[in-house]
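go over this record:
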Amino acid sequence: MPTFDTPSPISATIDLIGGSIRILAGDRADTVVEVRPRDASAELDVSTAEQTRVEYSNGKLLVKSPKPLKVFFGPWSAAVDVTVSLPAGSHVHGTTGHGDIYGDGVLGDCRLRTFDGDIGLHETGALKATTMSGQITVDKVTGDAHVTGSGDVDLTEVTGTANVKNLNGPSWIGQAGGTVHVNSAHGDISIDRAGPEVVARTAYGSVQLTEVAQGTVNLQTASGDIEVGIRRGTAAWLDVRSMSGGVRNHLDAGAAPGDSEDSVRIRARTLDGDILVRRAA
């Protein structure tokens, strides 16, 4: 396996026609690359693994599989599985035509893309992740997150802004320090704790914001329920409407908030569903 001396974090680019990418980040002073054929009995996989380039120079790693004359995805397309063990904090740019991308440990900024596969990460810096068919799961993003998927999207914590586009599947954000924008064609949207601005829209599905303390909130669904939790001690301005459903406001009416009080403006719309506004637990 190719091994390189890397006493500090590096920048890794991994470009595969097909196959999985696994990044293992840890407290280490070297980088080790393993390239294996997906199927050791398949001649195409074996030859692709043998022809995959592995190069390192001046803090930059390149792992690149050869491109066939005709690109197609299916049971007869080439696939190699790549594992890269590198120093924590390294930046990663990874693409694969079909296959999963996984990262373990603390990574730097990441740009990841797979046409057909899941993306799963422990902790990253700023993140841009895209899959056309698969799940995206990230424990922590230190920075901004831009995620595009078609399946389950789970972001436990984002310290910066969170921008999610999900074609088909539920989207969940545990905590975001900055602005949150979520757009879904078909799927529920759930946000536990949000930053100063939330925009969440889905054509078909429910929208739930468990706790908000300040800023502006805009929630919209064509078919589904909406639920918003307002932190205790926060004043709320409400503009909520359901064309075919009930609206329940469990907040006590009061005077306009003073200059020192936290306040939030809530706008919620559903064509077919109920709306609930309550105090956060």
